Amino acid sequence: MAFSLPTNVDFNAVDWRLTDARELSRSELTGSALIVDRNASVWTAKLVLPPMTTDEASAWEVAFLKARTEPFYLSPPLRSQPKAYRDGDTNIGTPLVDGASQTGTTLSTDGWYPAFEINAGDYISFSNGTFEELHMVMADVTASGAGEADLVLEPPIRISPANNAVIRWSSPRAEMIVAQGQDFITSIGAGLSVSLEIEVAERLS
User: Fold this and answer.
1) How far is residue 67's CA from residue 2's CA, in Å, rounded to a whole number?
2) Each residue of 23-69: pLDDT tens digit?
């Protein structure tokens, strides 16, 4: 199970991105290009913490060392709620996965409040039974009168979630670990203040 990061200090900067795992293959005979999607694009982030006291930094150093082998939860910056909710529509409902064995980039859901608008750029997450998957909604959709909505997502679904798996729309999150070959960088500043930064990547198993 993933753990939560310390909350004693906020990040100074978060460089958040989806790292593409697609490959470009070109035919030697025709010269035509073919993009091969390995279905393994991952969320990655560079986390930068501001100057802290030694005691404040210690909690983060422990967390980052732990994150070399154990995943932690991380939400995308500035996207803790859907756009419609931020704009004042708080009638969201209780969205769920609608049907098992779903794969690809479209997820059928239900349980939304009728006519609730899910906007391109919103994030959702859900548990696939092994880990929490984070996805960005790629196209606007309005829930039907029955509260149903088909969401176009990126990246593709990793592992099919169970029917009625809960859609996390408030503070959606990925499970992250320290990126391979990375470790945290500690900088000592004026007054012996400590700054930290680290590269992390999404857990996929």
Assistant:
1) 9
2) 544 556 655 554 445 556 899 999 999 999 989 999 999 999 999 99
Q: Residue 79: CB partners within 8 Å, gap ≥ 6?
A: 121, 122, 123, 172
Q: Token pair 């400590």 is at which residue?
A: 194
Q: List the one residue out of 120, 32, 30 whose CA is nearest residue 79.
A: 120
CA nearest to 113, candidates 141, 74, 147, 86:
147
The one-character DSSP state at 182 is -
Are the C-beta atoms of residues 93 and 111 closer than 8 Å to each other? yes
The confidence score (pLDDT) of residue 114 equals: 97
CB 139 within 8 A of CB 152: yes
Kindly write down the DSSP assignment for every residue of 116-155, as one continuous string: PEE-TT-EEEEE-SSSEEEEEE-S-EE--TTS-EEEEEES
Dihedral, CA atoms, 68, 71, 77, 79, nearest 10 degrees?
170
Phi, then psi, of 140 in degrees rounded to 5: -60, 140
Q: Which residue in this structure is represented by tokens 């900088």? A: 187
Structure tokens at 6: 């310390």
- If you search the block for the tokens 């939560």, which residue do you land on? 4
**Three-state secondary structure call for residue 73:** strand
Sign of CA dihedral 159, 103, 22, 31: positive
- Entry pTM: 0.86
Which pair of tokens denotes residue 155?
């990246």
Q: Which residues pair with 13 in a beta bridge?
A: 48
Report cis status (omega within 30 of 0) of the bond before 161.
Answer: no
